[in-house]
Inverse folding.
């Protein structure tokens, strides 16, 4: 039986398969296709399997993200409680840059004429203050029909305490607008939490994406079936878990950070095999660079985030993104200042060296000029890069304007993109009170291993771990991720007065729902794992910290332990803590996990001694010094061998550059570089 995982990036589409009987991994790449990524998806999958025993295909995509960033989602309407029409524009009055008086707030995803008020009111305790005005809902449906909306969001005040008005509104809208019955999102299902702005924004975002994502998944399943590669499709979520496409189609907000989440999960899995507990991950692809932290084996998570300036409240891996990829374009402005990114050449036309019509110099072109990349070795198994085209692009757009040689300009491009990525890594380490010297770096993506060792040295990290298939690491992460469902409910109470029975009742309801979701995913009972956690804060605070609850059936001791953990987390985060009688519970969360067999990586160290290179070639370092270095093939390396540095390691999905350090091949197939 074979499982496959596909990750669609801005330049390449990656696929990894694992044979469950042997544990053998096979990877491949295909150029990402635009505007529809499905052909690239099928091209990549066809390279590694044509079998009928394909059991599942895990899938990571930036479809939802791109729709938000390019404003290409559905024409969406919002029905809200009378008097709350402008919640989306009032927002939180926060500024991304505190002192920028010219900061522009993005236009709401729902224009004001499509935001309709409905007379109704639920009180904070869930009681009905004003009944739902059903004729007003029907009148609103008629207005929306004339406006030709494609999706509808419904967000009423305090619906998370009592959803009956939202449920009835959905019934009426489905009666009046049957063609939109599947494209109605209600906030009591999308995000049953307090804070009307975040709940409304998240609900609107979900409605905005639903028609697009549902249509795409439907086409993808049909094309998979027609290609005879049909298998059970599983989607990668932003929280690092898998979900069936039917649920992802109903709640596309689950997939907003689907693409980069896979790489973080692969790194966490690899770290566990290596005995590493503290990691910084660096995913440098063709278009962007995503960084994240892993502490004590657990990836950083967050409960709220922004995308394109819009608030979304949903558990997600805490990933920071900058425009620094292999396809990032280098340019010189009218004042003689050089910059790299965030604009990218993508895959069409791609870097100048691809020979596909691109004329602007990129990071990939710079690495080719410096000798790190080889014009005789295919990039991604697809393209033989053209050195002359790369050199001409750098000379015309960077070297001549700055009065530099082509090599000097290429060095400058690489050093600048490295600086951009170092700044991103500082954001998830130093700016969060972490000492980078306690961490190892896991660079991956098509370009990550090319730059990772230099970046690690500049940040004083102690070790670099190059994954076995770094260019397809995100796809590997999808293969190693579990099915996951995150459920949440608001339960506001002072912890000192809350009884274990009240808390246990709330957890039991969500646990039953989580088990039902896992049942629909086909996860047998013995592979189901349920965990509970609490969102707590001190009385008077505006935001919460999440703390794990030791048991799904809490007693007094478990609740005391959670309170003590909250004090500790608060002390660590903010430098102080208060008394037990000041702790408030706000939300209860239950996570349901369906354990998926993990791919086996490598084995015991098989040999000793230094690996034999295939060849040697001249490479220019970021210091501008040229030297002749050995060139290895990753497929030749055996666990236990050491590698000379500086050196270059070539493989189908990525090129690794080791300018210094003590390098060896780990039993997992990873290359470990010690920098101390």
């Amino acid at each position: 039986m074979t499982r496959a995982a596909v990750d669609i990036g801005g330049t390449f589409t990656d696929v990894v398969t694992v044979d469950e009987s042997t544990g053998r991994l096979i990877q491949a790449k295909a150029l990402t296709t635009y505007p529809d990524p499905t052909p690239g998806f099928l091209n990549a999958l066809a390279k590694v399997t044509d079998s009928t025993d394909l059991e599942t295909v895990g899938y990571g995509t930036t479809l939802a993200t791109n729709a938000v960033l390019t404003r290409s989602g559905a024409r969406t309407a919002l029905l809200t409680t009378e008097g709350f029409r402008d919640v989306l524009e009032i927002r939180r009055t926060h500024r991304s840059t505190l002192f920028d008086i010219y900061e522009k707030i993005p236009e709401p995803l729902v224009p004001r004429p499509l935001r309709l008020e409905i007379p109704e009111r639920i009180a904070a305790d869930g009681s009905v203050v004003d009944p739902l005005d059903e004729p007003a809902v029907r009148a609103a449906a008629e207005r929306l029909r004339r406006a030709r909306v494609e999706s509808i969001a419904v967000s009423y005040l305090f619906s998370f305490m009592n959803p009956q008005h939202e449920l009835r509104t959905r019934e009426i809208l489905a009666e009046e607008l049957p063609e939109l019955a599947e494209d109605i999102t209600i906030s009591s299902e999308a995000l049953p939490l307090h804070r009307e702005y975040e709940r409304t924004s998240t609900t609107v975002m979900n409605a905005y994406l639903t028609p697009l994502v549902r249509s795409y998944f439907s086409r993808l399943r049909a094309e998979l079936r027609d290609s005879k590669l049909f298998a059970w499709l599983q989607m990668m979520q932003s929280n690092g878990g898998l979900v069936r496409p039917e649920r992802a189609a109903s709640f596309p907000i689950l997939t907003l950070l689907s693409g980069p989440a896979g790489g973080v999960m692969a790194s966490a899995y690899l770290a566990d095999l290596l005995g590493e507990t503290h990691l910084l991950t660096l995913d440098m692809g063709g278009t962007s660079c995503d960084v994240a932290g892993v502490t004590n084996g657990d990836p950083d998570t967050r409960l709220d985030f922004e995308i394109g300036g819009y608030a979304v409240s949903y558990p997600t891996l805490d990933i920071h993104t900058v425009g620094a990829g292999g396809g990032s374009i280098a340019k010189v402005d009218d004042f003689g200042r050089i910059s790299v990114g965030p604009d990218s050449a993508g895959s069409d036309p791609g870097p100048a060296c691809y020979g596909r019509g691109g004329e602007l110099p990129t990071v990939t072109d710079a690495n080719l000029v410096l000798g790190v990349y080889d014009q005789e070795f295919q990039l991604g198994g697809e393209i033989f890069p053209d050195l002359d085209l790369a050199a001409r692009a750098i000379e015309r757009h960077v070297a001549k304007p700055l009065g530099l040689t082509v090599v000097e300009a290429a060095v400058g491009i690489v050093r600048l993109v490295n600086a951009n990525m170092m700044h991103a890594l500082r954001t998830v380490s130093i700016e969060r009170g972490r000492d980078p010297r306690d961490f190892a770096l896991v660079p991956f993506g098509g370009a990550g291993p090319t730059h990772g060792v230099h970046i690690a040295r500049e940040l004083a990290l102690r070790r670099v771990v190059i994954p076995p298939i770094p260019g397809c690491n995100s796809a590997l992460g999808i293969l190693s991720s579990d099915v996951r469902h995150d459920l949440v409910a608001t339960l506001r109470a002072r912890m000192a007065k809350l009884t274990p029975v009240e808390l246990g009742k709330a957890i039991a309801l969500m646990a039953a729902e989580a088990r039902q979701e896992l049942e629909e995913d086909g996860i047998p009972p013995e592979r189901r794992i349920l965990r509970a956690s609490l969102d707590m804060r001190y009385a008077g605070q505006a935001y919460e910290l999440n703390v794990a609850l030791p048991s799904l059936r809490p007693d007094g001791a478990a609740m005391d332990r959670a309170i003590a953990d909250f004090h500790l987390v608060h002390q660590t985060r903010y430098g102080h803590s208060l008394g037990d009688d000041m702790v408030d519970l706000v939300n209860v969360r239950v996570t349901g996990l369906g354990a998926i067999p993990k791919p086996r990586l490598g084995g015991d160290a098989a040999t000793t001694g230094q690996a034999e290179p295939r060849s040697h070639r001249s490479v220019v370092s970021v210091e501008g010094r040229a030297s002749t270095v050995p060139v290895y093939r990753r497929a030749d390396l055996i666990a236990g061998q050491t590698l000379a540095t500086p050196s270059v390691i070539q493989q189908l999905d990525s090129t690794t550059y080791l300018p210094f350090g003590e390098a060896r091949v780990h039993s997992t197939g990873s290359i470990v570089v010690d920098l101390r």
Summary: The mean pLDDT is 89.
